[in-house]
């Protein structure tokens, strides 16, 4: 039943996503007595995870291009009260034309606007914001936290927290915001990462406009 509810939630979000070019689109949704199904567009470019595995890190122009499209897609979702809650390279697809397609809305939260908050343990631990890991209330800023991690991975090939010493070490490094990036990381990127990877979600939202300015 839980899986069925997740599929139905994803179908609802995909209907909203149909209005934006950088969100994955749904061709059809249907259900039987016991199952629900979604037919989605095919992204022949694979996922961002696949691309990073192949290239390790991306050229600056690619980082800016993909980041700008992700920002546009996330802003569209958030303006409609939707938090993705599981943003990660696996869920960022690349179309045949080379554009970003944010996908996998099965864990999304609906009807959360502005400074409204929600709760619940959702997502992939490596990309969870501190508020989620600490079982606190949160809002759309958790997507920007995940975006900051992805931005770091695209630009440097590094995951910025301790994911080599088990779940407890990973959790601790995120809760303490002990992000590390290579010493050769450009200073402007470091500044941008600091703006989007802040543990306080209200501060994160205040800095969002500056994030978009950096990308433009």
TrEMBL record:
InterPro entries membership: Kinase-like_dom_sf, Prot_kinase_dom, Ser/Thr_kinase_AS
PROSITE patterns: PROTEIN_KINASE_DOM, PROTEIN_KINASE_ST
Gene3D superfamilies in alphabetical order: Phosphorylase Kinase, domain 1, Transferase(Phosphotransferase) domain 1
Molecular-function GO term, any one: ATP binding
Keywords (A to Z) from UniProt: ATP-binding, Kinase, Nucleotide-binding, Serine/threonine-protein kinase, Transferase
Keyword Transferase included in the entry's annotation: yes
Protein name: Protein kinase domain-containing protein
All copies of domain Protein kinase, residue ranges: 1-216
Keyword Transferase in record: yes
Database matches in Pfam families: Pkinase
